[in-house]
Every structure is written in C-alpha cells, then in structure tokens.
Design a protein that fits this description.
This protein is α+β, with helices and mostly antiparallel strands. Helix content is 28%, strand content 32%. A hairpin with a 4-residue loop joins strand 2 and strand 3.
Amino acid sequence: MSKKSHKKPKETLKFVYRHKIILELMAKEISENETIVKVISDEPYSHLSFVRKSDGVQIHITDELQTEWRRHKEKRKVTREQILRLLLVLLSQPGNPPPRIRSFENRDEMATIEAWVRRVSPRVFHQPGDRGVMVFREGPFKDLTNSAFSSRFDQTIEWDELIDSHQGVDELDEDKIFETVREDEMWGRQCRLGFVRNPHRLVISLNPTLVAEFNLGALTKSEGMMKRMLNLNQFFEDLEERGILPINIDGEM
C-alpha cells in the first residue's frame, strides 16, 4: 500500500491595487525542517529559504532561474546566540544595554543575562495605565497595523486604500492620522499599536491587562539586525530588479 502524501501547510499574502493582485507571496513548509517564502507566479524567481537546525537556522536565497549548482546564494547561518542577542537588543533600555552572549553553554553569561532580563522586564511588560497614547484613527492604517499582530500570514492588503488615505494628508498633520486614547482603553478600542513621547516609545496592547513597551531606538536597531539575519534586503532587492514590486507609496505603477 502506498503512503498518502502529507499536504504541507501554506499561506499567502496578497497585495491588491484597484482590484488587481500586484504581488502575492507564499509561505510554505516544503519539509519537516524547511520553510520557503516565494512569489506566486508562472515565471521562476528567487525564493527565501529557512532551514531549522539544532543550533540555529540556515538561511539562503534560491535563484530559480539558475542551474542546480548555482541556485543557492547569500547563504548564512543564524545561531541561537544571534537570535537571543536580537531579542535582548529589543528589550534594551537607554543607558542599560544588553550583556554580551557568546555561548549558551557559558553558565556565567547565561546567569548575567537572566539577571538583566529580570531587571528590564518590568519596564517592558506592565499593566496599562491612564496615560495618553497616540493610535491610528479608524481606517486602513489601523487595520494594517492590527493585522500585523495576527499570527496568520494568510492575508490580503488593499494597497489602494492605504494610498488614497495617504494622499492629500500633510505628514505633519498628525491629527488627521492619529488620535489619543488612554493606554488602558487600547485593547477595548481594538488599537493594538500606539506611540508615546518623551521618551519616544512604541506600545503594543497584548491583552486587556498587559502591554509591551519598547524604546524606538532599540526597536530600530533590532529591525536592522533582523533584516540582515533573514536576508530580507537582498531578497526584496532581487524582486525589485526583476520588476516584481510595481508600486510605491505614492501610487505610481
């Protein structure tokens, strides 16, 4: 008796402009340890591959136009220590940088990290208070940010709605884009993301009784680290060179 093939789960992220799909990305498990992200198209393009290893993740870009021996490029391995370093940078506070980590096997380093995380965690994760938080007003920007916190990759983004709402709005006219709500109102008003000033921080509503608060400087630094780790810049540069990203924020096709 032949074995039944196991259908691997896949999800798609669609970008729609004027009722037309301009870009469709698919995330799919192709084996027990490998997941790929690629453009859905009749033509071959590059795809991003993540291979889970016991000591980290191997990441490479596969050029589907090349022959087998030249297909894989931009190979890199992300270790467990690098992933932890990224998370520590995200949690860091001004004047309180994260400790160094060289190896999970170094007990002294891990003890130092554990003590540091205990110190900074109350500043990052806490109950919502009554302070004012800037959040997106009802509209496509709010919908987009809320969907970004969904665990589902499988979504459709109406690009024209974002462009239409952006046009004619002065970038400095915050009142047309944002409104201020109390931090403890964010969850009930379905505002997953907000901003506070002095100091500049990002606030994420995790549930009715818990928010996560990140320093914007640390967030920007960790974002850059993640892009380099995951090869995202190179992947999207490849797509742009081949004309797969046909629209910009100004609505020009």
